[in-house]
Amino acid sequence: MNLHEYQGKDILASFGVRIQRGIVAKNAQEAVAAAKQLTSETGTSWHVIKAQVHAGGRGKGGGVKLAKNLQEVEQIAGQIIGMNLITPQTSAEGKKVHQVLVAEDVYYPGESETSEFYMSVLLNRSTGRNMIMYSTEGGMDIETVAEQTPHLIFTEEVDPSVGLMPFQARRIAFNLGLEGTAFKEMTKFVSALYTAYVESDSSLFEINPVLKTSDNKIMAVDAKVTIDDNSLFRHKDYKDLRDLREENPIEVEAGALGLNYVDLDGNVGCMVNGAGLAMATMDLIKQAGGEPANFLDVGGTADAARVEAAFKIILKDPNVKAILINIFGGIVRCDRVAQGVIDAYKNMGNINVPIIVRLQGTNADIAKDLIDNSGLDVLSATEFQEAADKVQKVLA
Amino acid sequence: MSVLVNKNSKIIVQGFTGSEGTFHAGQMIEYGTNVVGGVTPGKGGQTHLDRPVFNTVQDAVEQAGADTTIIFVPPAFAADAIMEAADAGIKVIITITEGIPVGDMIKAANYIKNRDCRLIGPNCPGVITPGEAKVGIMPGFVFKKGKVGIVSKSGTLTYEAADQVVKQGLGITTAIGIGGDPIIGTTTKEAVELLINDPETEAVVMIGEIGGQLEADAANWYKASGSKKPIVGFIAGETAPAGRTMGHAGAIVGGSDDTAQAKKKIMRACGIHVVDSPAEIGKKVKEVLG
């Protein structure tokens, strides 16, 4: 589950990580009130207005702007809220902005220069351990840093039996070239950040930039936080943080029906049991001359109700020219699935695209007879290649 | 010969009396698997499916001689169940449970690391040695006995591969579902190594998918081993969109070699017979075995 910047920062702050403070606002008036409150609480005279959408590169799309007085706060907030923000990470249409974070200005002048760093916490899949990845090159696209100056990216892996040790936090602060107060602040920041990552059951923290202020404080100016969905049973308070407006509406609807669905751009819909077989089926569609319109795993119980729900989801996509159903019946019997397909088809009444049903496994023969004798415009297959050939035929 | 499980394995079921555990333990027993009992804390002393129920894995080891376990415990308690099995001296821990928090699996993987046991999964279909032991949720009838080993991250795609191999008149020594989670106990490389070293296995089918480095590691190991046993490979997800499951920062660590195309390239360079179509796995196995 991805979070907005302000939600991620709230979680960081709850574990003692210093953050750039801010107040979220849904319209220009709220933004002005938020700015006044921030000024009284923090003394900040300028404010940064930041679009809250689930996409990086917001500044490049005009979604992050500095306001030097309350008129500018009102004007900029009014301009950003409601806009379709287009960034390098969004689609060409962009993402609608529903709210902004009015944040304190932390780049104020002072005794030393400010500097920006990059820091993320994530799982290293090859070792099964968490690691902190960090760089002196903050505020930049980290992929560019990795490509152009890989020697400026450091990693610190954490032994799960002892957690992040003080010497590791010190090594990070040394590698970032810090000394004095800023050095101490950084070790505290890193320790609190790692604790927050583990305790919140996150699967990704990306803080870009981590800022050293002119008075040597270390703080998170941005926060990209992803929570491990599988851990939500023990974080009931995080459940409400999900913003469905940020997600594909068809995927949200499919999720509510217990279907694992990913929307794609192709012309052949598919309905499969099992994630691996679903991906393999997509690949087969491509080889048959089509393009997969979706990934859809119906799971173990492919009964009439689920098949019908899956049909409805797939047919919401107007580009779908054919549907391939590929079920390997193990525990679930193919004849049951076939009957489910037939019942769903009859209930729907108006399916105008050809359907190819490939059922293999338990009672596959009975299932094929059921489909063939149903009188419906449904092609049956038992072998994988046969299904591909039929897809190719209906697309021709 | 076979690997991991056979007719002499003494198998227990953790989460024995729950609905999943009951259904699949019943199927395993029907298949002829040597299920010696199960564990459900608080129900020790009862009998379920004509088998004894124990309170702890330790009791099952001491009283029934259990050496293998299959875990159906719900996600919130599954990591604990894995560690309990390892602590009790179980040698093969097969975890079916899907949806275990990654934070829990980091701890469990670390806990079992220096203990004498092997974890398979989690989020896997299990392991089957046809005619001897089905320790998983796969449909047993698909897997006929033979000389081909299977290693796969996916459930139904494993059944598909086995079905194709069997329809070519061949059969399976052992099929190992290693699971699709970010942290799994037995890697592709380790599973392939077990099968390559199994004298009865004459060829291996290796099925992977996008994400991570497991298939590349297995391919590099295979090349370095100098083994003459053929491997047929398939990677699912050539058409899967990038970045849907992996985080932004994770993509850097993954590097450029975790797409289906890149993995297949490495596998081919290491001498693996890679098929582009999932419909050609069986045919290719027949071809390489001559």
UniProtKB/TrEMBL annotation, chain A:
The reaction(s) catalysed by this protein are: succinate + ATP + CoA = succinyl-CoA + ADP + phosphate; GTP + succinate + CoA = succinyl-CoA + GDP + phosphate
* Molecular-function annotations in GO: ATP binding; magnesium ion binding; succinate-CoA ligase (ADP-forming) activity
**Needed co-factor(s):** Mg(2+)
Residues recorded as binding substrate, renumbered to this chain, are N273, G330, I331, V332
Give, as in the UniProt entry, the pathway in which the protein acts: Carbohydrate metabolism; tricarboxylic acid cycle; succinate from succinyl-CoA (ligase route): step 1/1
State the EC number(s): 6.2.1.5
Record-listed Mg(2+) binding positions = N208, D222
Alphabetically sorted, this entry's keywords are: ATP-binding, Ligase, Magnesium, Metal-binding, Nucleotide-binding, Tricarboxylic acid cycle
UniProt GO BP: succinyl-CoA metabolic process; tricarboxylic acid cycle
User: ATP-grasp fold succinyl-CoA synthetase-type domain location, by residue?
Assistant: 2-210
- Domain ATP-citrate synthase/succinyl-CoA ligase C-terminal: start-end pairs: 271-391
Name the Gene3D superfamilies on file. Answer: ATP-grasp fold, A domain, ATP-grasp fold, B domain, Succinyl-CoA synthetase domains
One Gene Ontology term, aspect cellular component: cytosol
Q: Cofactor: bound how, per the entry note? A: Binds 1 Mg(2+) ion per subunit.
Q: What's the family? A: Belongs to the succinate/malate CoA ligase beta subunit family.
The task this protein performs is described as:
Succinyl-CoA synthetase functions in the citric acid cycle (TCA), coupling the hydrolysis of succinyl-CoA to the synthesis of either ATP or GTP and thus represents the only step of substrate-level phosphorylation in the TCA. The beta subunit provides nucleotide specificity of the enzyme and binds the substrate succinate, while the binding sites for coenzyme A and phosphate are found in the alpha subunit.
Q: How does it assemble?
A: Heterotetramer of two alpha and two beta subunits.
NCBIfam families xrefs: PRK00696.1 (NF001913), sucCoAbeta (TIGR01016)
Descriptive protein name: Succinate--CoA ligase [ADP-forming] subunit beta
From what organism does this protein derive? Xanthomarina gelatinilytica
Automatic annotation (TrEMBL), chain B:
Q: Which residues cross the membrane?
A: none
Function noted in UniProt = Succinyl-CoA synthetase functions in the citric acid cycle (TCA), coupling the hydrolysis of succinyl-CoA to the synthesis of either ATP or GTP and thus represents the only step of substrate-level phosphorylation in the TCA. The alpha subunit of the enzyme binds the substrates coenzyme A and phosphate, while succinate binding and nucleotide specificity is provided by the beta subunit.
What the record says about family reads: Belongs to the succinate/malate CoA ligase alpha subunit family.
Subunit organization: Heterotetramer of two alpha and two beta subunits.
Catalytic activity reported: succinate + ATP + CoA = succinyl-CoA + ADP + phosphate; GTP + succinate + CoA = succinyl-CoA + GDP + phosphate
Q: Where is the CoA-binding domain?
A: 4-100
Q: What is this protein called?
A: Succinate--CoA ligase [ADP-forming] subunit alpha
Binding-site positions, substrate: Y159
User: What pathway does the UniProt record associate with this protein?
Assistant: Carbohydrate metabolism; tricarboxylic acid cycle; succinate from succinyl-CoA (ligase route): step 1/1
An example GO BP is: tricarboxylic acid cycle
* Catalytic machinery residues: H248
Gene behind this protein:
sucD
GO CC, one annotated term = succinate-CoA ligase complex (ADP-forming)
**What HAMAP family does this protein map onto?**
Succ_CoA_alpha (MF_01988)
Q: Which InterPro entries match?
A: Cit_synth/succinyl-CoA_lig_AS, Citrt_syn/SCS-alpha_CS, CoA-bd, CoA_lig_alpha, NAD(P)-bd_dom_sf, SUCC_ACL_C, Succinyl-CoA_synth-like
Task: Identify the EC number(s).
Answer: 6.2.1.5
Residues noted as binding CoA in the record, renumbered to the chain: T17, G18, S19, E20, K43, I96, T97, E98
UniProt GO molecular function: nucleotide binding; succinate-CoA ligase (ADP-forming) activity; succinate-CoA ligase (GDP-forming) activity
Species of origin: Xanthomarina gelatinilytica
Keywords annotated in UniProt: Ligase, Nucleotide-binding, Tricarboxylic acid cycle
